[in-house]
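Internal ticket #5521
Category: modeling
Description: The requester needs a full-assembly model to guide mutagenesis choices. All entity lines are attached below as received. Residue total reported by intake: 416.
Assigned to: D.W.
Attached entities:
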Amino acid sequence: MRIITVSREFGSGGRELGKRLAAELGWDYYDREIIAEIARKCSVSEDYAHYMLGQTFSSSAAITMGQSFHIPEVLQSTQIKLLREQTNVIKEIAARDRDCVIVGRNADLLLKDYCPLNIFVCADTASKIKRCAERSGKDENLSEKELLKNMKAIDKNRKNSREMISDSPWGDPKGYNLVINTSGIEVKKLIPSVAVFAKGWFDSKDNG
Amino acid sequence: MRIITVSREFGSGGRELGKRLAAELGWDYYDREIIAEIARKCSVSEDYAHYMLGQTFSSSAAITMGQSFHIPEVLQSTQIKLLREQTNVIKEIAARDRDCVIVGRNADLLLKDYCPLNIFVCADTASKIKRCAERSGKDENLSEKELLKNMKAIDKNRKNSREMISDSPWGDPKGYNLVINTSGIEVKKLIPSVAVFAKGWFDSKDNG
């Protein structure tokens, strides 16, 4: 079984890359499906699970560090429950023993024992703003300033959620196998090459 | 014309990757050839040119910053002359208008206008030590501690020489298009995939 994980900066096209890569390879694909499964297991709505898992993890961090940031206990315990379920769901995916691509959710760390190909996708700010502006619907007319603010907030949460469970800094190439900078690149066109690279990567692993 | 530049950490297999990649693609390859050309143009020996260009650039930096670090003037001026010639030689290579792979020498920065595919190759310390130990000849029996010391010194020079002429930190993914972590990878086996990726990358560039 081969697992590819895709971590990414918001607006870098990382999710698109993951989704198209899975389609190109004919592998299973997991992204929002994970949220749906967590929501089902915890008996909450998908939106709520998504919101809670996307929040900054200071609540859980507070517990980890034995400090109190005055976050209502009920929220703390719900978030921790969701996080635990997230770990279970991701491990269950791996246990299915099928080639797959998983986007986000620190799957690279949680599935370390399976030696996945861990890809990080980044881009320069201009490319990310452009991509976000293109994909945000007509009803969602955010200014560049607002987009940038959202982008930073989301990336900060991703960074926090990684660095809470790992010493490997978010986005640091040493923590991944491949970092793709999508600045000035049409992700769709790059997919066949990434697919070939990915297959080659699994064949290039040292036996040792 | 397509140009691939390869920057790398010492011991990461970056040079091997660049050389094999050029062979796989059937493109021109430049590495030590650049030193030979600089040496010829400056009427010094290749070894001397290599040594002087590999040294920390504090002398040139001192001049840039208008400070004196008490480096003999004759050495300063020689090094600057070699650095200038290096820029010329690399620009002449690009002017040949042939697909090529260039390893090291900050070619990614010097040839920015040609929009090369800029690859950075890194690896974890254990992999780099292993690779260095394997390739160092029988007559050169360095301890792991000595290898590590050399590795750090060479990387520090590479970092300095880049950061003297650019704001983009050495090894930061944002400054390259692709970062390949060769930890646990047999570089030779990965080459066909990198070649496909590289060709695909040039085809995926935005027209804008």
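Resolution: model delivered.
Comment from assignee: Confidence is low (pLDDT under 50) at residues 59-68 of chain B.
Ticket closed.
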